[in-house]
Description:
single chain; alpha/beta; three-stranded parallel β-sheet; 3 strands; about 15% strand; globular
Amino acid sequence: MAILKYEDLPYQKKRIFLGGPEGNAYVLLGYAKDFSRQLGLDFDKIQKEMTSSDYDNLIQVFDKYFGEICDLIK
């Protein structure tokens, strides 16, 4: 799982601090759109899945698709 505490980071990836302004749902959707475009993924499908439930679901779906390139930090 790519939701880590800051002090547990063993390597350098894009970091998004969920407690800061980057942790806002709309900002995360913006990152998802950019990453989807860069990776050739279907953003509409990902957006629908991310917004199908609550904030916790949004984070889990984001991690599912982009956890290899980005860490979400509590």
